[in-house]
Amino acid sequence: MGKTASQMTKRMMQASSIKEVAALAGVSIATVSRVVNGVANKASDETVERVRKAIATLDYRPTSAGRDLRRRTSRLVAVLAANLANPAMTAIAASAEAALRENGLVMVLCDTHDQPELQDEYIREMLAQQARAIVLLGAVDSFMLRRAQESSIPLVFVNRRAPDGPMRGFIGIDNQRAGEDVARWALARGLQNAVLIHAPTASSATRERVQGILAGFAAAGTPLGTSRVLAPQAPDHLRIGRDAALDLIRGCDRPDLVICTSDLIAFGVARAWREALPGQQAPRLIGFDDSPMNEWLAPNLNSVRIPYEAYGRAIVEALLGGDRCATIVLAHQIIERQT
Amino acid sequence: MGKTASQMTKRMMQASSIKEVAALAGVSIATVSRVVNGVANKASDETVERVRKAIATLDYRPTSAGRDLRRRTSRLVAVLAANLANPAMTAIAASAEAALRENGLVMVLCDTHDQPELQDEYIREMLAQQARAIVLLGAVDSFMLRRAQESSIPLVFVNRRAPDGPMRGFIGIDNQRAGEDVARWALARGLQNAVLIHAPTASSATRERVQGILAGFAAAGTPLGTSRVLAPQAPDHLRIGRDAALDLIRGCDRPDLVICTSDLIAFGVARAWREALPGQQAPRLIGFDDSPMNEWLAPNLNSVRIPYEAYGRAIVEALLGGDRCATIVLAHQIIERQT
DNA sequence: AAAACGAAGGAAAACGTTTTCCCTGTTGTG
DNA sequence: CACAACAGGGAAAACGTTTTCCTTCGTTTT
Questions:
Q1: Of A84, B33, B218, B260, which sits 20 to 30 A from A169 (CA to CA)?
Q2: Which of A106, A113, A124 to mutate to test the interface with B (most CBs of B within 10 A)?
Q3: DSSP structural state of residue A86
Q4: What's B299's domain CATH number?
Q5: What is the domain count for chain A?
């Protein structure tokens, strides 16, 4: 009663543990483990060869549960993103995923929706999973985050700094400088009548961008009055932009440039203009982040590009570097699509 | 020499295993485990209460490695997406993430870039991680995929069907019908001179959409001749759209409608038109997928909307339903932005 | 020639759970 | 009263690794 090959496969798919490899190679499981982990000086070349062959035959891979249990750590790296609806964040996440997997790590992606409770829930879960590290892609202040900061798990803050202030495992562009650059860019083009729309300043990224922009205009002797700075309350950036734009449209003094602290805000502005004043061109716009799709979709949007592709490598570097306070500043660049 | 509270916290952050809980509650670890897992009839109410309190005090969570090892399964669900640069995919992934976590599962997100080798690598890794299930968000045919299909791990195919044909754990819209609907929509608006641009038909979704569209036009007695169907080779959908549009622009017979099997293709068409013929309006466009951002960014793009928010629930349902061949058809809807 | 050392590899402990037995009352049931 | 049934709970095995000790050789150093 021989089984067919496919039936055998079905039966065999399940496991193939280290024991079977050891049996097949005629060695102890300790030796197999050592070969798998490349421990030197513990196996002769021919033994290594035999084990390798057995591993290949059985298509063996160490079960992570066993390894994690013993090593008290796992290959999981949690990426807690503030908002996956933002193309800029998903672009960074994609970059992180590629870089992590190149280093044998696995990305777990979560969306905290910028809510402390959800972020805490995820941090708890990831600690239970013995995650190797936690990457906060737009952190919000929360209880477990502060606890995690005191523990030994590596934390990397991307784009937004750690809640309690000082540089600490931070990766991102120099937002203040980027803000200043935007101001300079505007002034160099003779745009005198700018308006700034920004998101809530709970985010350090937004805060620093705003500071930079204001500082830039002030330094040129043409400070932005408070009447030219808008920050409406709204559930998301798109709506912040729309609401602010509707305000502008109602007013009489039309700006010649609208500066937004994120591209999403700019999208909202553009849409409001389009719908409220059909046929009439929206004012010149500049935003931040410049997601990869902008090139195709938003031909009129100027933006400060952050180097997505670079984030993944930077994150891995910060993680494996061991330095818990490494700060990696990435280069930004103004993309001009409509002068 | 008493330690400060913060020092204590630091020391304590590490573990808090089931043993400590048991000790604190004055019971055996077996009892703690039973309380955690809600096993009935194995502990008196007061014991349960004591254990609960101990768990709360120590902020205990079962370490997944231990649990996974014993149970030979984990809470990880792998989502293998074909292309994270596509906003439609990330929207579905976000929906999946939320639904999974509501059911105590954790999403691992990977980008296969539509490459069989990479998909295989991920499948291997996820099998080693003892993933609870694998969700293929745009599967490509590959060796390990076929092997996985023969094994016992739950597989869910989203948008694209399993490579070897028959309905099998499939979730998505009825692409053929959607295609027919698009044809009807076009004809009802008197658009006689349509052109179809489509991606490679290795994807069942694309194939079925194309079939539906062609069938729809044919049924009305106005079949789309082969000269009106374009499918250029290009590394991604955006470029497929651009290349096809450049072809159209070179030709003399301008279409009154361009049908694209994905919105990304449509974005490419729009861009090509914009750049090749500045100031001149692109032809009427209709695409598929209608990512959430379209509403803000692509005011002129008609599209067949797939119900993102519904995917997460459907995926979980297919996973937990136990039926390995469940097919969940979601409802599509034509979004008309420019008539 | 004795001592020391290094290479090769095995046995077994440990990691933190879950779960299967088992044991001890207590409570019906005949 | 005998006996079953059951509630409550503990001891210990098992899951698949990694790693710490050992042991056994063969080689080099004194």
A1: A84
A2: A106
A3: S
A4: 3.40.50.2300
A5: 3
